[in-house]
């Protein structure tokens, strides 16, 4: 088993760039630090430092050990902070990743229960590509990720996905574009300019297949990773665009657009993805509570 005291000494020396500087910072004798690192190397059966002139440099194994040590001691600091926050009723940090294909208003609806706890929560939201967010989730830089798909099977991340809500899809258009369409839905969509979610959006291919099944061929004039940007182009009358029926009224008000026809026979789902040992966070539990899952448009 790893001696974490020895690992901590190695971590300090690696960050300081040498034993002498680490000795000055820690107040420990250089001989003590050298002995601790030698003991760690012996227990691991690997050399962690090599001499380069008058300085120490990490070996390839040393770099690997340092990466793990950074994470171990960062999580340890988080643990101390979490316990201290609970003990003193201070604000609890809640780090959330939101996949860039998730509409902002749906992200807010799903995260809202975390802001209604008796405990004070300070939420930190970061938007990015799903795979990058899952990478940070795996090393515990995030507590939860919101996405439009469950955890991809090809990713070597131990976690769980929970469906929070699902919604049918509707199509929207600025009023001047909507007025050019006939009443024969969906045939009226043939050759109409279309704004399409980007390749990462789970709903993209089902939407294209829906057009094929209904024998209509809209003209794709734009593709967007950011759903809010797609809606802004739609507001400008550049093309029709899809959005979940769950937020249809809000989309119509905010972007001054109209719903076209009736909701499509397509469902879009949104998930909370967590790593197992993080499921005790009170904000995560509030978001994933059974009563929060009973939402469908």
TrEMBL record:
Gene Ontology terms describing biological process: regulation of DNA-templated transcription initiation
PROSITE patterns: HTH_LYSR (PS50931)
Keywords of the record: Activator, DNA-binding, Transcription, Transcription regulation
Domain HTH lysR-type: 2-59
Protein name: Transcriptional activator NhaR
Species of provenance: Azoarcus taiwanensis
Name of the gene encoding the protein in the UniProt record: nhaR
Family under the similarity heading: Belongs to the LysR transcriptional regulatory family.
GO MF term list: DNA binding; DNA-binding transcription factor activity
Pfam annotation, one family: LysR_substrate
